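Notebook p. 47: complex prediction with arginine.
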Amino acid sequence: MLAKEEILISLKKALDEMGIKDVKISLEHPKIEAHGDYSTNVALVASKILKKNPFDLALELVEKLNSLHSTLPNIDKVEAVKPGFINFWLSKEYLTKELQEAIDKGINFGTQSKTTTKTVVEYSSPNIAKPFTVGHLRSTIIGDAIANLLEAIGWTVYRDNHLGDWGTQFGKQIYAIKEWGNESELDKSDRPIKLLVDLYVKFHEEAEKNPSLEEKGRKWFKKLEDGDIEAKRLWEKCVVWSLKEFKKIYEELGVKFTENNGTGYGESFFEDKMGIVISDLEKKGLLKESEGARLVFFPKDKYPPLMIMKQDGATLYATRDLATDKFRLEKYGKDVVVINEVGAEQSLYFKQLFEVEKLLGWYKEGQRIHIKHGLYRFKDKKMSTRKGNTIWLEDVLAEAEKRAAGLAKDKDLLVAKEVGIGAIKWNDLKKNSEQDIVFDWDEILNMQGNSGPYLQYTFARTQSVLAKTGIDSGQARMTSFWGAERLRNLKPEEVSLLRTLIKFPEVVEEAGKNFAPNILCNYLFDLAQKFNLFYEKHKIIGSENEELRTLLTKVVGQTIKNGLNLLGIQAPEKM
Ligand code: ARG
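Predicted complex, structure tokens below:
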């Protein structure tokens, strides 16, 4: 049995015997190593119910646990500390046994078997004929990492991309292409979006002088909706031109989608699926008219009303989202968990959307999740895609690779790419996603700090040690260290590494269940630091403990690599 389960069962038993029922027992990994491998606050929680001193209760519980000692064979020590926590230390035998498991699992270390939970993780979702913004970059990176983590904990994951490929802006875009554009130039260009954006900007400049253009744009959108051949042809071209660029970015980032043949279901897919949504809303009496438009008003004005149909009968972003989420229930099953990775600026919108979906009886509590990300700040200025100060993602990625090439010893282009992209991803994932991030090249590529290159460098270091050691790490077994005496003699840095390593699967689970890749980043950074400390302090090759140290090195390498891969980051062998 796993030590964690063992602790939970014994705690429950001890509480039962003390007549304490119905308290939630939670176990955590203490932040400070001196607080053991697991810690529980159950005595603090129970003391409130029993109106007892928490520390006294913790002491009583520890006594009870010690008398039940046989139920905790994998625990070395249990201790009560003020104000009432109980800390547990794993036995070294257990640690080594678990390490052996890790070795045997190899690339699957950290991965769990399949469960029945299904989820749609929707991320990236850029807009056709608009720049792929740094906001979309964040969504792509964070969404992909969350999808990987959920897959690792056994969920079935559908990866979707809700492309913004429909809406009134296409009327203006089509007008602008016809008026000022050059289709063959657009066809040939490898940065067609730039040209499309220029045309779009020109439309607005001209419309300022001549307001009748707005009406012309509206007409073209109407034509598009009515299936006009020319309108449809140009719209499709916009999609093709944009996808050409987006696909390059996804390739660069190593990110994929599974739905709709890998393209994702964009907004346009739902164009003919909105009528039924409107009638669903009508049936439930949720639609009200106001100045010709149709809106959902929320009970007790919990949120501002959400517009579903404009005066002129046109549908909106929200209407298409509702159609999308209805489709998802039908396609993936009524228990599907739907996650949207979208910027925090759409928080209110998603609250409104989720509320409507609840009012419609479609989704239950916990089935709809908005993972928000904060902004990128670039020298204190919000990176904006509007007006002159557009930041082109291609340029950012190219710059990352250029700088990474200067960093790596190995002047391998592929390595430079993996380091550059890895650096950007790590910078994005290492903090709670809701926080804003500062885009600072020095921090992103800092080999000494909490950065992607530091993790990759540590991995490469493990590989170079393994290449030099005389021990065949594939053959070596942890079991040869089970001798009690040897275990007693483990150095503190060795024990610390052992204790950290075996937590990996639980960290992956925690990161997945909380949709929080930063939990995994924190862990990996801590592990890498511990390894580097161990490496600086102890000789590995040629030491009396060569075999054990080689194995530790091997598992550290495997764990960093598995962890980085879950974050969507490559781990080059050499750097
Ligand atoms: N295309 C939108 C944008 O760029 C993001 C779409 C988010 N997903 C959704 N289901 N609404 O702002």
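Notes: Residues 122, 125, 127, 162, 164, 321, 340, 342 surround arginine (CB under 6 Å). The chain has a mean pLDDT of 92.
Next step: compare against the earlier run before touching the bench.
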